Amino acid sequence: MRKTSVELTRHQIRQLAFQALFARSFNEAQPVAEILAYVLAESADVPAEEVATSEIPSYLTLLAEGVTEKQPELDELISTHLNKWRLERISKTDLIILRLATFEMLYLDNVPPKVSLNEALELTKEFSGDESRRFVNGVLSSIMHKVDSEKQ
């Protein structure tokens, strides 16, 4: 088995987590680990069969599995911060970015909420559009203020 010994930055890991969660949104029965192996293989340009589970960065697994596991709670929180919007109206792309950042804000104490917000805006720049960036910024800023006030 060939190693995909690629050092990934946290931003690259978030990109891969986004891609995995986006792919999973079309096939929720597929195990997260399989999807992670596939997106990691694609990024390293090797066949998915050659990516061992042990090669998947732990932070990537944490994000993808965490968002998947906590999706109902994340969606509920996101819904409470939508101004005149319903969750069903949000594009898949934007919703997945919102879920990723909200997961980091709520469950990962080693990631400052402001970093999660900025990373989400970068993902929005890469995978969505300008209108979405403003929308994602507004929703996540509201969530960030709530999270910050609850931690104090």
TrEMBL record:
- InterPro entries, from UniProt? NusB-like_sf, NusB_fam, NusB_RsmB_TIM44
* A matching Pfam family: NusB
One GO-annotated biological process of the protein: transcription antitermination
- Where does the NusB/RsmB/TIM44 domain lie? 11-144
Cellular component terms per the entry's GO annotation: cytosol
Q: Which GO terms describe its molecular function?
A: RNA binding
Top-level taxon: Bacteria
Keywords of this entry: RNA-binding, Transcription, Transcription antitermination, Transcription regulation
Q: Note the HAMAP family from the entry.
A: NusB
Its function?
Answer: Involved in transcription antitermination. Required for transcription of ribosomal RNA (rRNA) genes. Binds specifically to the boxA antiterminator sequence of the ribosomal RNA (rrn) operons.
Q: Which family does it belong to?
A: Belongs to the NusB family.
Q: What is this protein called?
A: Transcription antitermination protein NusB
Species assigned in the record: Vagococcus acidifermentans
